[in-house]
Amino acid sequence: MEKQIDENLKRVYEQDATDQIPDRFLDLLKKLKDQE
Question: Where is the Anti-sigma factor NepR domain (predicted)?
Fold first, then answer.
């Protein structure tokens, strides 16, 4: 599940011209991973 989320996020950001993920997204992903 987590891998799928990461892949989907990457796909979205590849379509967008930016390859830098906002810090708040990284923080959110970290929180989600920490909960497992």
Answer: 3-36
